[in-house]
Write a structure and sequence with these properties.
The chain has 204 residues and is of the alpha/beta class. Helices cover 25% and strands 26% of the residues. It has 5 helices and 8 strands. A hairpin with a 2-residue loop joins strand 5 and strand 6. The longest helix is centred in the last third of the chain and has 19 residues. The radius of gyration is 19 Å and the shape is globular.
């Protein structure tokens, strides 16, 4: 069999221009209104109305660490369940019988793939909307990098800034040598800097 390589821009790719900010809080990132020439309010309501008519896959998770981070919910159409699955593999998932009674989401991720084509001419767009005591991420794409990973990281930077703790953008690995020495390495760096590769067996 012969398999064609994907054309440039197809399939999995990092899109450095996907993130926009819909609120008026301090940020050095592009604003929704500047990029698209309108306020986000109407599209936000259209998205919520559309989701209200879908069969949904909803799950709870804890972003960040158990003691530092935020209670979170992911809301996605059930026919795009692979996205919540990828998010759950990245961020973890709280089984229904393990959700604490004081669970109070500070982060909400809404997944609405069709709007990528309805509102953004096929572009990947992830909208961050910081409301009072609630950080919203609207994922108008199905590649989880800009929203499930980088989006959650962005929310942690914001929440950590408010609560005075720091989110490290890193990968960590513990190596036990043949002599039972334990070495723990944290590699902090930019995307594409080799953090994940450090977890591969040859590197270990």
């Amino acid at each position: 069999r012969h398999f064609a390589l994907p054309a440039p821009g197809d399939g999995r790719r990092r899109d450095p221009d996907s993130m926009v900010i819909a609120d008026d809080q301090p940020s050095d990132k592009p604003r929704f209104r500047e990029r698209f020439g309108r306020e986000f309010t109407e599209l936000r309501q259209q998205t919520l109305d559309w989701l209200s008519q879908q069969e949904l896959a909803v799950f709870a998770f804890r972003s960040g660490w158990e003691r530092l981070g935020a209670d979170a919910l992911a809301v996605a159409p059930a026919n795009a369940a692979f996205f919540p699955l990828g998010l759950a593999l990245l961020q973890g998932i709280l089984p229904l019988d393990s959700i604490p009674t004081d669970f109070s989401p500070e982060l909400l991720i809404y997944v609405a793939p069709p709007f990528r084509h309805i509102a953004f001419n096929g572009e990947q767009v992830v909208v961050h909307n910081r409301r009072q005591s609630l950080y919203e991420i609207f994922s108008y794409n199905l590649y989880p990098g800009p929203s499930a990973k980088k989006g959650v990281y962005g929310s942690l930077i914001h929440i950590g800034d408010e609560e005075e703790w720091i989110s490290a953008h890193c990968s960590a690995v513990r190596v036990v040598t043949p002599y039972d020495n334990i070495v723990t390495i944290m590699h902090e760096g930019a995307s594409g800097g080799g953090k994940s590769e450090m977890l591969e067996q040859p590197h270990r």
